[in-house]
Structures are given as C-alpha cells and as structure tokens.
Amino acid sequence: MADSNMGSSMKYGVAIGVGIAIGALGALLVKKDKTTIRGFATDVISQGIDFKEKAMTLVEGAKEAMSDLVAEAAEKQKQREKADS
Questions:
Q1: From CA 23, how far away is CA 48, in angstroms rounded?
Q2: CA distances for 45 relative to 15, 41, 48, 84, angstroms
Q3: Is 85 strand, coil or helix?
Q4: Do 39 and 2 touch, CB atoms closer than 8 A?
Q5: Closest by alpha carbon to 10, among 62, 50, 47?
Q6: pLDDT digit string (tens) for 24-75?
Q7: Which of these, 8, 20, 9, 10, lies nearest to 59 by C-alpha position?
Q8: 27 vs 25: CA distance, rounded Å
Q9: Shortest CA distance to 39 belongs to which of 26, 50, 52, 51?
Q10: Distance of alpha carbon 42 from alpha carbon 38, whole angstroms
C-alpha cells in the first residue's frame, strides 16, 4: 500500500519537474528569437521529451534499487526469524 503511494507521489514529482523544465526551456528559446512559432514549439517539445526520458530512466533506476533493498531486508528478516526459532 505504501509502495503504491510512493510511486504515485514520484510520478507527480516527475510531472512537476518536467513542467518546470519545459517552462525554463521555453524561456530560453524565446530569447533566441525564433523566426517561426512552429520551430520554437518543436524545439521545446523535443527538449521536453529528452528530459522526460532521462527523468523516467532515473525513476526506474530508483524503483529498481528500492525493490532490491526491500527484497534484501525481507530475506534478512526471514533469517532472523529462522535463527530465533
């Protein structure tokens, strides 16, 4: 149950981070004096996609590391219970 809440919170955090990054990139690109709105929009979207992919890679790595830690902790708990019996 707690794992589900953590995943949901992490998704919202990533979404907020992506939004902030896209806004910052947009502000930088406006300063470059793009000649067309289409070129500006495609630049912003492509940078946002790159950022999202990198962020999701980090999130997946963190989830995997957390799963490994939980599995190791469960194994240690089993070993303690076995030793106590």
A1: 9
A2: 14, 6, 5, 58
A3: coil
A4: no
A5: 62
A6: 777 776 665 556 677 777 888 898 889 888 888 888 889 999 999 999 999 9
A7: 10
A8: 5
A9: 26
A10: 6
78 token code pair: 């089993």
Q: Using the 8-state DSSP alphabet, how is residue 1 labeled?
A: -
Burial 35-72 (b: 16+ CB within 10 A, else e): eeeeebeebbeebbeebbeebeeeeeeeeeeeeeeeee
pTM of the model: 0.47
Token representation of residue 48: 């946002």
- Residue count of the chain: 85
Helices 37-84 and 2-31: angle between axes, nearest 10 degrees: 160
CA 7/CA 83 separation, integer angstroms: 34
